[in-house]
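User: Teach me something about this protein's shape.
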Amino acid sequence: MFRFFILIAIFSLSGCATKYTPGEMKAHYKPYTHFSAGTGNGVLVKASKGTRFWKIDGKRIASIPSMMFGGGYDAIKVSPGKHSFSASRGVDLNVRGVELKQGNEYYLNHLQADKRIYYWLENTTTKEVVWGTRKTQAMLEEKE
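Assistant: First, the predicted structure itself:
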């Protein structure tokens, strides 16, 4: 009986700490290309490891069954200009009307805090956040 209470105490104490998981950039990306040849080289948008794109500008690029089994795309290549896209990391995310500039590269990053996921899109060329708000573990721990 004493062992049972020790186990309960350990589980209740370990449940109090928030687990933080930052996004990781992959070594290699295979983008879905969604732009016409006359618009230059296109703009590359990469997603953090485990995040997959499934819709660009209202066009579905990955099926629901595909997404359920890890499908979708880890990167998209689009023409410069304003775009909307959807991605998923278990929970869907919709980015609407973000301006993507020629010659720049973008990264859809995240920070997972237990079951909550914070997303932001950063221009890796200029280091500015163009959508959402960059979160860090220190910022979230400050609020607790």
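Now, about its shape. The longest strand covers residues 92-100. The first helix runs from residue 2 to 14. If you'd like, I can walk through any region in more detail.
User: That's plenty for now, thanks!
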